[in-house]
Design brief:
Layout (H helix, E strand, L loop, with lengths): L13 H23 L17 H22 L3 H29 L3 H22 L4 H10 L22 H23 L8 E6 L3 H9 L1 H7 L2 E7 L9 E6 L2 E6 H4 L2 H26 L2 H6 L2 H29 L1
Parallel strand pairs: 1-2
Antiparallel strand pairs: 1-4, 3-4
Helix pairs in contact: 1-3, 2-3, 2-4, 2-6, 3-4, 4-5, 10-12
Length: 329
């Protein structure tokens, strides 16, 4: 993938090579997932609007907009901008979000919903391969050759065009709102080192009727993508105690009971062990740095390295002690 602006040179970078290798693997694995979950009878099916669910409309609307934007960027020779938009869409929206959203449908027993998901997965994949082809011609052509019902090479297939019938602005707003809520919940859980397998109850507080309807519709997304056990939607915070983690999003507050996220005794035990380990490391590094012979005779880079370690261990110790203090309260 090229991300350089027009007229600018780009230095060779192994990091960029590795990043693009990872992207190619991501695309390849996504294709394998689609083909493994594709029934033969749906290969020739067209998209039927009435059969689509909200996430289907969202991804179709998003790829529709990306088609228009990338086509416009390429016509203006904004190669780097076009490439970045395709990269972001494939990695984030198609792979990390849409595929994860439709997995329960693909593994479920609702045949019409399953068929709609398969048709949309294949349709979007074909469009992104066409958009990506000018940037990564070889791997996209190879992937294209494995897709069903492709009688011609990707290089001579028609360029995708914007289609107004796939403009679902309301679906975009609803799914984007749910995604932002899930991101907030995930961030809070990550900061507390909560395992994804640990389910939690969630209380959503909002007076906005549109938000309530969106959250109610999105319950299955919170269960599948935010490790939710169940959700409750309220008008006020009355009755919600202080022993909750709070996540604030637009027009809504999300409360998660701490007891659902943490086994307090085990977490305190883990942090105590971490504190003991850090105390040992700090004792060792402080002993070295207080030794005049070591400081005066060791190479400067070695001494600097030990000072950096001391700073790092002290910062980690501060966080551990703060966490222990909060839990003990």
């Amino acid at each position: 993938m090229c991300s350089s602006d027009l007229g600018n040179d780009m230095r060779f970078s192994m990091e960029k090579v590795e990043a693009n290798r990872n992207f190619a693997n991501k695309l390849w694995n996504a294709t394998r997932f689609v083909l493994m979950n594709l029934d033969e009878e749906v290969v020739k099916e067209n998209i039927v609007i009435d059969m689509l669910e909200e996430e289907d409309r969202w991804i179709l609307s998003r790829v529709n907009n990306v088609i228009r934007e990338v086509t416009d960027n390429l016509s203006k020779y904004e190669i780097g901008i076009a490439g970045q938009k395709i990269y972001d869409f494939i990695w984030n929206e198609y792979c990390d979000w849409y595929i994860e959203m439709v997995k329960p449908r693909l593994y479920g027993d609702k045949l019409e919903s399953k068929k709609a998901a398969q048709v949309v997965l294949l349709s979007v994949l074909k469009n992104v391969l066409k958009l990506l082809h000018p940037f990564m011609p070889y791997i996209t052509e190879e992937i294209w050759s494995h897709l069903p019902e492709n009688s011609e090479a990707l290089i001579i297939s028609p360029w995708p065009v914007y289609n107004e019938k796939f403009n679902f602005e309301e679906s975009e707003r609803r799914i984007d709102y749910i995604m932002n809520a899930i991101k907030g919940i995930r961030n809070a859980r990550q900061e507390m080192n909560v395992a994804p397998s640990r389910k939690a109850n969630m209380i959503f507080v909002t007076e906005d009727e549109v938000v309530k309807e969106t959250l109610s519709y999105g319950e299955r997304y919170f269960i599948n993508l935010a490790s939710s056990q169940n959700i409750e939607i309220r008008n006020t915070k009355e009755g919600i105690g202080e022993d909750n983690v709070a996540v604030v999003i637009d027009r809504c507050e999300i409360f998660i009971p701490l007891s659902d996220l943490i086994d307090f005794d085990k977490e305190i035990e883990r942090l105590e062990k971490e504190r003991e380990k850090l105390e040992g490391e700090l004792k060792r590094v402080r002993g070295k740095l207080s030794n005049e012979n070591f400081v005066s005779r060791a190479p400067a880079n070695v001494v600097d390295s030990e000072r950096e370690k001391q700073k790092k261990y002290e910062e980690m110790m501060g966080k551990v002690l703060e966490r222990l203090n909060n839990l003990n309260k």
